Amino acid sequence: MPDGHRYPAEQRDAVYRVIAERRDVRRGFRSDPVSADVLARVLGAAHQAPSVGFSQPWDFIVITDRARRERIAALARKHRDEFAASLPGARVRAFDRLKIESILDTPVNIVVSCDRTRGGRHTLGRHVQPRTADFSSVLAVANLWLAARAEGLGVGWVSFFDERELAAELGLPAHLEVIAYLCVGYVTDFAAEPELAIAGWARRRPVSWAVHAEEFGRRGLPGEEPLNPLAEVTAAIAPPDAAAMAAARERQDRMTKPRGSLGVLEDVSVRLAGLAGSCPPPMPEPACVAIFAADHGVHAQGVSPWPQEVTAQMVANFLAGGAVVNAFAAQAGAEVTVVDIGVAAELDPVPGLLPRKIAPGTADFTASPAMTREQATAALTAGIEIARDLVAAGNRCLITGDMGIANTTASAALICAFTGADPAVATGRGTGIDAVTYARKIEVICRGLELHRPDPADPVGVLAALGGFEHAALAGFILGAAALRVPVILDGVIAGAAALAAAALAPDAVTACFAGHRSAEPGHAITLEYLGLRALVDLGLRLGEGTGALLALPLVQSAARALRDVATFDSAGVSDKL
Ligand SMILES: Cc1cc2nc3c(=O)[nH]c(=O)nc-3n(C[C@H](O)[C@H](O)[C@H](O)COP(=O)(O)O)c2cc1C
């Protein structure tokens, strides 16, 4: 019997149960003391953790002294405040409601440390990967956490510390590192789900997203066909919920205001309800703008007065917080994420940058397809995954942003390919070009269309022939949002071109799209009409980055807020029109 060593069913169930029911506990601690016996059992379980080369690098510091815990709580409070100050508006409000430590609410705190030098040089495994010492101490934490749950003890992990500050308070020798600060005590209740999930801060990712067959990217559970994210999202995208839309319309008519007086915002609220499948719909916040940045081979044709390096330079500016998109995002309370999907430069890893480079820029579409089908699919998939991850991280509204010198050329080419528009009509002046460059831009687009003869029934082929990596990724981003039924506010002509590709792949994806603004680029008006979308803001903007969409964010949020908060004639006792 290969499974002869298996535990009896009841014991197995107990193991899986303790894993499923372990919770990070922050509130509802009781003041009852934890006996020395119970603590010793839990620490004994921690001490049985696996460790690299059997080095057992952990130590456990058990803290009960009130004065010490007060000093440590003050250290955590300082970092909590610093973190709160770094958050965008909607996140600050959500974070304020979260409890992130129970240092003083619990009778015992336990620090787990790591000695990376323990055992000397012969420690098996650690010589190539020094981090394995830390991993070993983390496994001791996991054992402790599970054993504590079995004992009915809650554990909360606090990481709002400067590690050296905390080490000094604990008298740790310099060669020891703090791995975990744990607050331990009996509780009134264990929540069924992570508290951060209950609070709407983040969601659990499906296990199938995390399991890959043989190679990274072939996602799927054992025994199942590998998932194809593109096929999966296009299959998941469905029409809006008619009942929720009818309920929203009906509620708008009963709200204490003349019927129809909120104009286009009434339609926005109805669409939000249809997308969410509920009336009123959830508030579209927190919101996050994802700026997809990439370079374009067609730049070599002289279609833009700006050098290609500006793409990478502007990425650095977004990350430093110095661009218009940062100012507008700060004003609207949205987070900014930058995605390197194909910038023709090496970018240093910094917080806020998602490194997803498919290649350093596309090929020149006047000479060959801009990208291979595989590259187009990879960029689409990256966009889908970014949308999923941002929603799993708690965002309830996604906003498209883009950066790529020469990307209005690729956008116009895509718009012509998908809508059949004439390049002479659909092409605009982008960042501002003279008549000679403008004529060349139109001619370059005509040559591209002539060379590839793109078939709009093959959207991946169209993207590969003429698009940019940011267009393909943005199309995936829109599809990912639509599959999760989260609204996505489109910026200007680049997002519009991407939305045409998304709609060609899954027509109902448009259900999730809200046209943030109408760009000055002529191709954008053609696109919006083709998609049946009405722009919320029309201010002659032609910047990109996500700026126009961010201006529309408060409008979309106000539309949802009105449907949620405004009283009805009957509830408020206001007389309706006769
Ligand atoms: C390395 C690590 C550090 C953590 N730091 C904190 C923290 O500073 N404050 C907090 O409230 N929770 C902290 N947590 C708890 C997580 O938020 C929690 O594990 C997660 O939300 C999942 O919930 P669950 O543990 O109940 O399944 C930490 C967890 C880990 C693994």
Can you describe this structure?
- The chain is an alpha/beta fold.
- The protein has 23 helices and ten strands.
- The chain has helices at residues 9-21, 36-47, 66-85, 89-96, 131-150, 163-170, 195-198, 207-210, 229-236, 242-254, 264-276, 309-320, 324-332, 373-392, 407-419, 423-426, 435-452, 459-466, 469-483, 493-505, 522-531, 547-565, 569-572, and strands spanning 58-63, 108-115, 153-158, 176-186, 287-294, 335-342, 353-355, 397-403, 488-490, 513-515.
- The strands form two sheets. It has a six-stranded parallel β-sheet with strand order 7-6-5-8-9-10, sandwiched between helices. Strands 1-2-4-3 form a four-stranded antiparallel β-sheet, with helices on both faces.
- Helix 10 (242-254) packs antiparallel against helix 11 and helix 20 runs parallel beside helix 21.
- The longest helix is centred in the first third of the chain and has 20 residues, at 66-85.
- The protein is globular.
- The N and C termini lie far apart (81 Å).
- Flavin mononucleotide binds at residues 23-24, 26, 100-101, 157-160, 194, 196.
